[in-house]
Amino acid sequence: MIVPFKATDHVLVVGLGRSGVAAARFLLGLGLKVSVSEGGQAGAAASSAVTWLLERGVHCELDGHSRELFTSVDAIVVSPGVPLDIPALAAARQAGVPIIGELALAPAYLQTPVIAITGTNGKSTVTTLVGELLRANGLQVFVGGNLGVPLCEYLAGPQDADWVVLELSSFQLDSAGAFRPRIGVLLNISPDHLDRYPDYAAYAASKWRIFAHQEGDDYAVINVVDREIKELLERRPLRARTVGFNLGGKPGPDSALADGAWDGGSAAGEPIRLSLSSRGGGQENYELAATALAVEPNRQNAMAAILAARLAGCPPQAIRQGLAAFQPLPHRLALVATIAGVDFYDDSKATNIGAVISALQGMRQPVVLIAGGLDKGGDYRLLLPVLREKVKALVLIGSAREKMAAALASAVLTETAADLPAAVQTAFAQAAPGEAVLLSPACASFDMFSGYAQRGEVFRRAVADLRTVRGGSGPLLRGCPVMAAILL
After folding, report:
1. N or C: which end of the chain has fewer CB within 10 A?
2. How far is residue 124's CA from residue 148's CA, in Å, rounded to a whole number?
3. H helices, E strands: number in the chain
4. Which of 125-139, 328-342, 428-442 has the lowest mean pLDDT?
5. pLDDT tens for residues 202-229?
6. Rounded to two decimals, what is the model's pTM?
7. Which residue has the higher pLDDT, 302 or 295?
8. How far, in Å, CA of 196 to CA of 258, rounded?
9. 125 contacts 328 by C-beta, under 8 angstroms
10. Residue 44 carries which DSSP code?
11. CA trace torsion 419, 423, 426, 431 (10° rounding)
């Protein structure tokens, strides 16, 4: 692997999304010869990024990937959205050309300690929250990665932050090289992206790579009650100091405990309680009931963020201030309105089965669920237990609706709708006062929308149309039970 690069190296950047453009700019700043290859439509040639690159003498290969270019360079930096098994990359690999992602640049070029967060669900919320908690302590923080701003944009600048906080997808971890976060956080693992990975085990192994190059003075923050994480920990012990969090109970055998513990109760309404005996401290309490993080699954998200911030040296008072001020990201279990006694929740970001399970487990009232979209290869039968417990009726949309109906219709009243506004009307007709209509799709959005955000906005507009007819109120705050965390 050619990192750091030699001055004479010719580096190819594959993919011209924001990550690829940032990588090309960074590599040009190093004085390297750079080419780019974009497999998208010819319209990319007119983009400002391509124009900027062409003006600087960068060879731009558009509308496809040639084996000749891929096998003639000294190294390839691949964007996260590019599958690693495309023929041109396979040819480069066979020719011995190193293939890396932007995370693999960090060991040589990043000068700031990193907190990295991954997991199937909750990554964006935890990444954003960790950044806010550190800022509440007066620190300069760069927040980016899969969340929006590529790491290469930070690498190309003055690198003047106290901490870099990164959301990492499995795609980024696949090409992370020797990337080593000071604090790595793994929130959960459930089936996702099975249209890209050969099986669930390969996807889970990709998530575990966040810890692959950590050493004994680093921290690994893990959800110790997540079944897949527990099994991975047994099979692949970590070198880093392991910090566990859970929702009460014990994380495992006493032999897993180190010289201190984060401990907590389980009674509803109690705060998060942290015991810092290993650091000579006493118990710390963190209240969530009056915050926007009060509703599950944000209780677990907050727990992981508090752990990461405390391990980064953030004092309790700053954490409390950050928790109180935090506002959840859009389209993540957001209460849109209450109409005729029916609550409408926008959880459009729930693009996989695990996210829907988590959302339904946190609901306290009967639910009419709107789901469906572009299938990602998951097994919808995993939803059956929580559907039987929580869901009154199911309304399906999108190209996956027939597959989902075949898997789920035996468990719950199921209808289909031609589009999302029609689904909102159908769901409202099924819901009674005191119940909820929840958009939590378990699918990607690209069969009908430009992304999950547009899907969420269409849902909100459809709900607003109901309000003009029936009337209703805005979002309400709800309480939450306690969380606990344990240092292994």
Report:
1. N
2. 10
3. 17, 21
4. 328-342
5. 999 999 999 999 999 999 999 988 999 9
6. 0.83
7. 302
8. 38
9. yes
10. G
11. 180
